[in-house]
Recover the amino acids of this structure.
């Protein structure tokens, strides 16, 4: 193996940190849904994919910056999430895991192939964004779109953390996650908490999708990548709340960056999934889990 | 002793006649298709799906584990068989068993950590889904995007290198019958009863002293070996080795067929594979060019509907028809 240029390594790690922040945001919605509702959602990555296409359509139709479309797509996705919850998820609450997985895999196939039917297989990118200028700091250059994506993700994670710890809604959510029946006895409307959690988790994917679209393109196969990635982060984070998701996302981002530096871009997913494998083998409750 | 062996191989009369009937029907299919090149190829593809789903039924239906890596085990069997054949001229009759051996090894590596007691089912499903991508990446790192072609070799039977599809059809149809027979044997064996107990209530099974992890692993190993052998036959049919063999979708679709067929029902699983695979080919031909992906969209819709409304799938329908036909007077026990 060749010696690795230290400045290139540093550059890639910095990139990895900002990518990792974005990955945390992608996984946050899934962690909420899985943690609070105990629903196994395999279609999470495909919500990101649908969000990416919606961003593309809105940005190119109204000629607005892809990052700004989040203000429109997030409310739409909140409603979309609640509709999906009412139509499908509510009926499999408490069902065997196998049935939950089967139903959400069905949802995944519908969403992905709908995207394939409407937009065909060629990736669709938004040709304009206000974040094009790279920012240089000493030996490190970072694309401003990545920087903004990372910072916005961090802010969003902070806001969700505040929501969960400081507001009545957040406390109701955490209480439901801890013990559904006791929460019900305390006068919490569990069904409504579930609907809102699913809506919130889904609308977070719309924000992530808008940020992804500032530097990447939408294609029907995004879902598999982001779906598995989110689950890896949730597995690593255990049920350790927002902090666990953030830490796991950063670790995954850095591992990915190191994999690209050492082996090459082809090894990108390989290292992430191998990490997943070893986490399940040695720390099945996650690195930051409580239970 | 031959008597003991015969007893071990035997099935109940009803099942045995059913299996013989199935074998006769499958044997006649190419005749009804008039030995048409294209239709026989389609029938071969249907048999491929049916045999894979029948093998999946062991881990998915009986052991209740949502395995999404059918294509990974099949592709491992295929690449081992194919590369040994193309590079060293090793007969696929040996290669497919070596491939099956590798598939079993990989399956145990995946199953051992995730079948540990108290780990949620979701991690197994995810890890198997990731496994297909992991193996695809590894293959890609070794062979790149190059495709390796297996040349035509003589003698045909030794190298499974036929110019017509009928032989492949019969090989895969034989696999379908054999795998259904294995399914039926497992169902009425100690392993089958243990797996049923594990599927119903893992905690209770463990409390009764069943080594849950070991029996899940047995089911997984049988399934992976069968999928590897199917892959070995499949590669002699297509003759093209590429990283595309590791197809995450095929793994998911296999599980879909098994679930739609009704978990744990081998008749339902095979029937679902035959119906859905034929429907897929029809849709691909009819509207696939204008609306790519429409056949998979239909899979998704069916899966949601079955999951939400009727988790027992096609099997409940089969039971209903069977009761109407054969046991009109007897009350259904199940």
């Amino acid at each position: 193996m060749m010696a690795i240029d230290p400045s290139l390594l540093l550059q890639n790690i910095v990139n990895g940190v900002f990518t990792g922040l974005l990955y945390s945001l992608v996984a946050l919605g899934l962690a909420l849904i899985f943690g609070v509702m105990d629903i196994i959602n395999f279609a999470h990555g495909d919500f990101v994919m649908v969000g990416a296409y919606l961003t593309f359509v809105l940005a190119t139709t109204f000629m607005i910056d892809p990052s700004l479309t989040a203000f429109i797509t997030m409310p739409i996705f909140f409603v979309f999430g609640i509709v999906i919850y009412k139509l499908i998820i509510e009926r499999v609450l408490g069902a065997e895991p196998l049935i939950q997985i089967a139903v959400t895999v069905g949802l995944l196939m519908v969403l992905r192939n709908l995207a394939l039917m409407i937009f065909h297989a060629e990736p669709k990118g938004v040709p304009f964004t206000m974040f094009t200028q790279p920012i240089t700091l000493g030996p490190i250059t970072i694309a401003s779109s990545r920087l903004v994506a990372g910072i916005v993700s961090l802010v969003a994670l902070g806001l969700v953390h505040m929501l969960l710890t400081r507001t009545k809604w957040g406390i109701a959510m955490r209480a439901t996650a801890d013990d559904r029946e006791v929460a019900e006895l305390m006068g919490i409307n569990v069904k409504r908490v579930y609907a809102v959690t699913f809506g919130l988790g889904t609308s977070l994917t719309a924000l992530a999708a808008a940020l992804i679209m500032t530097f990447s393109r939408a294609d029907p196969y995004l879902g598999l990548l982001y779906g598995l990635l989110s689950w890896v982060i949730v597995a690593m984070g255990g049920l350790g709340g927002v902090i666990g998701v953030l830490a796991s996302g950063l670790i995954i981002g850095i591992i990915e960056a190191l994999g690209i530096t050492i082996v090459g871009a082809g090894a990108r997913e390989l290292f992430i999934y191998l990490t997943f494998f070893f986490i399940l083998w040695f720390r099945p409750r996650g690195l930051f889990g409580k239970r | 002793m031959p008597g003991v062996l015969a007893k071990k191989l035997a099935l109940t009369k009803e099942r045995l006649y059913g299996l013989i009937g199935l074998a006769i029907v499958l044997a006649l299919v190419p005749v009804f298709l008039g030995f048409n090149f294209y239709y026989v190829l389609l029938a071969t593809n249907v048999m491929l799906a049916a045999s894979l789903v029948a093998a999946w039924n062991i881990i998915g239906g009986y052991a209740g584990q949502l395995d999404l890596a059918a294509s990974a085990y099949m592709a491992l069997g295929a690449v081992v068989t194919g590369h040994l054949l193309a590079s060293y001229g090793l007969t696929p009759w040996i290669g497919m068993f070596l491939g099956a051996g590798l598939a079993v090894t990989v399956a145990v590596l995946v199953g051992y950590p995730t079948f540990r007691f108290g780990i949620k089912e979701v991690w197994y499903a995810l890890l198997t889904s990731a496994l297909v991508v992991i193996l695809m990446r590894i293959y890609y790192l070794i062979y790149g995007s190059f495709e390796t072609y297996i040349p035509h070799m003589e003698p045909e039977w030794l190298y499974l290198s036929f110019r017509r599809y009928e032989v492949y059809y019969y090989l895969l149809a034989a696999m379908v019958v054999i795998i259904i027979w294995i399914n039926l044997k497992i169902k009425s064996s100690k392993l089958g009863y243990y797996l049923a107990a594990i599927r119903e209530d893992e905690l209770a099974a463990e409390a009764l002293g069943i080594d849950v992890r070991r029996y899940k692993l047995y089911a997984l190993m049988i399934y992976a070996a069968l999928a590897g052998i199917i892959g070995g036959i499949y590669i002699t049919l297509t003759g093209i080795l590429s990283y595309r063999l590791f197809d995450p979708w095929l793994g998911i679709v296999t599980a879909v067929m098994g679930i739609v067929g009704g978990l744990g029902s081998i008749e339902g699983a095979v029937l679902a594979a035959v119906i859905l695979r034929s429907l897929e080919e029809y849709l691909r031909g009819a509207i696939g060019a204008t609306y790519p992906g429409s056949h998979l969209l239909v899979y998704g819709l069916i899966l949601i509907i079955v999951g939400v409304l009727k988790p027992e799938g096609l099997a409940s329908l089969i039971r209903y028809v069977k009761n109407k036909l054969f046991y009109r007077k007897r009350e259904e026990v199940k």
About this structure: The radius of gyration of chain A is 19 Å.
